[in-house]
C-alpha cells in the first residue's frame, strides 16, 4: 500500500489505510506500507497499528510548512523509492491511497513490472488548495489541473475506488474516468459503546481536523445562537492550524466557557467522548465519507450534518438526525435545538436508527471486496446506502 499520509497523521485517509491493512493482516495476508517518515528516521520498521503488526517502509520526507502536520516525499525521488521497495517485496498487488507523490511512483513502477494496481481516491483538491500559497484567483485553475493530473495516474490502475457512490460520481465528473467503485471505508462498530442512559446534559461533539475545510466556525456560531436555557456544551476533539483562531472566535461570541478544545486525544478518550455526547455535529461540506461520522453512528449518536457531498448518505434527516443547509448558521442552530430538546424516547429512536444505518458499513464486507479486487475478480459494489424502510423489507 502506498500512502502520502499515514499514522501518526490523524485524518480519514490515514485511518482507512491502517484499518484496511490491519484487517488484511488478520486474514493472513502480508501487507507492506510505503509512507513518509514522520521524522528524520527512515527505513523499514515493524509498527503496531489497529492492533496488528504492519511492515512500514518509511521514506525520507520533508515538512510542508503551510500545513500544520503534512510531510511529503520529494516527487523526483518517488519512483526510485518505489522501485527499490517493489524489487525487495515483490508484491502480488499494489494499492495506492493517493496519486500525489508516493502513489504516483508506485503506480508507475508497478505497471512497468506487470503488477496489478488498485487505487482508492481520498483526494479533494478543494480541501488541499487552502494549504498552498496560491492566490485565490488561481485556485480554480489549479483545481482543474490537479484533477487532470490525478486522472493520469488513475488510468494506470486496474480498478479505482472511493468510499461512496456520491464520491464516485464526483470523481468521474471531475475527470474522464468511468467505472469508479463505491466501497465504504468500513468500520468495526463493535469497538464503540452506545449509551441509552437518560440524558443529564446537552453535549455537542465535533471530531476532526481543526482546519478551514471543516467549517468549525459555523458550528461555534450556531452554538452561540442556541437558547441559553439549553446549557449546551461544545466539545471539539482534534488538532489543527485554526485552533487559536477558533478559540478566539468562541471567546468573542461569549461561548468560551461552554466550548472545550481537547486537541488530539487517545483512542480510549475519543471513544468515551462519543459515548458521553448527546449529538454529533459536522459542518464540513467536502466529505468523501467521514469516518468520524461513522464512528459517531457506531456510538449510537444522532447526527446533525451539512447537506453536502457524502454526508446525506449517512445522515437520513428525521431518522438518525438532521441535515442542514451548508454554512447556514441559523439552520444548524435550529437542527441542533431539535435534537437537544427531543424527548428521551425520540433520542433513543434516533440512536437506534444510527446503529441500524451504520450496520451495512461493516469492515468485513470492505475487506472481502478489496480482496476480490486484488485478485482481479469482478465485483459488485456493496450496498451501504440503504434506508430504514429498505432494511425492514
TrEMBL record:
Glycosyltransferase subfamily 4-like N-terminal domain boundaries: 10-189
Residue ranges occupied by any Glycosyl transferase family domain in the UniProt entry: 197-354
Protein name: D-inositol 3-phosphate glycosyltransferase
MF-aspect GO terms: glycosyltransferase activity
Assigned keywords, A-Z: Glycosyltransferase, Transferase
Listed GO biological process terms: carbohydrate derivative biosynthetic process
Transport found in the keyword field: no
Amino acid at each position: 500500500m502506498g500512502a502520502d499520509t499515514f499514522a501518526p497523521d490523524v485524518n480519514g485517509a490515514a485511518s482507512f489505510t491502517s484499518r484496511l491493512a490491519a484487517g488484511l493482516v488478520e486474514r493472513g495476508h502480508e501487507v507492506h506500507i510505503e509512507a513518509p517518515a514522520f521524522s528524520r528516521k527512515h527505513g523499514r520498521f515493524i509498527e503496531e497499528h489497529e492492533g496488528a503488526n504492519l511492515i512500514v517502509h518509511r521514506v525520507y520526507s520533508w515538512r510542508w510548512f503551510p500545513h500544520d502536520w503534512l510531510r511529503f516525499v520529494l516527487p523526483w525521488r518517488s519512483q526510485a523509492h518505489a522501485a527499490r521497495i517493489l524489487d525487495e517485496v515483490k508484491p502480488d498487488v499494489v494499492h495506492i491511497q493517493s496519486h500525489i507523490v508516493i502513489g504516483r511512483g508506485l503506480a508507475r513502477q508497478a505497471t512497468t513490472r506487470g503488477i496489478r494496481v488498485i487505487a482508492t481516491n481520498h483526494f479533494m483538491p478543494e480541501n488541499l488548495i487552502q494549504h498552498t500559497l496560491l492566490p485565490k484567483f488561481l485556485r480554480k485553475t489549479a483545481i482543474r489541473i490537479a484533477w487532470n493530473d490525478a486522472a493520469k495516474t488513475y488510468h494506470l490502475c486496474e480498478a479505482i475506488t472511493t468510499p461512496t457512490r456520491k464520491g464516485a460520481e464526483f470523481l468521474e465528473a471531475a475527470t474522464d474516468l468511468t467505472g469508479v467503485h463505491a466501497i465504504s471505508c468500513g468500520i468495526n462498530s463493535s469497538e464503540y459503546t452506545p449509551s441509552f442512559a437518560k440524558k443529564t446534559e446537552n453535549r455537542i461533539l465535533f471530531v476532526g481536523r481543526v482546519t478551514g475545510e471543516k467549517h468549525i466556525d459555523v458550528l461555534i456560531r450556531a452554538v452561540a445562537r442556541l437558547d441559553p436555557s439549553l446549557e449546551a456544551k461544545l466539545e471539539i476533539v482534534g488538532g489543527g492550524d485554526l485552533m487559536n483562531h477558533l478559540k478566539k472566535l468562541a471567546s468573542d461570541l461569549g461561548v468560551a466557557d461552554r466550548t472545550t478544545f481537547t486537541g488530539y486525544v487517545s483512542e480510549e478518550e475519543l471513544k468515551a467522548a462519543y459515548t458521553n455526547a448527546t449529538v454529533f455535529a459536522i459542518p464540513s461540506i467536502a466529505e468523501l465519507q467521514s469516518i468520524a461520522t461513522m464512528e459517531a453512528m457506531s456510538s449510537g449518536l444522532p447526527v446533525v450534518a451539512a447537506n453536502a457531498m457524502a454526508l446525506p448518505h449517512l445522515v437520513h434527516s428525521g431518522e438518525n438526525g438532521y441535515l442542514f443547509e451548508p454554512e447556514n448558521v441559523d439552520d444548524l442552530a435550529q437542527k441542533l435545538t431539535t435534537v437537544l430538546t427531543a424527548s428521551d424516547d425520540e433520542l433513543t429512536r434516533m440512536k437506534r436508527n444510527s446503529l441500524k444505518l451504520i450496520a451495512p458499513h461493516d469492515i468485513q464486507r470492505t475487506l472481502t471486496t478489496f480482496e476480490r479486487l486484488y485478485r482481479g475478480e469482478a465485483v459488485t459494489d456493496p450496498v451501504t446506502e440503504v434506508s430504514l424502510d429498505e432494511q425492514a423489507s
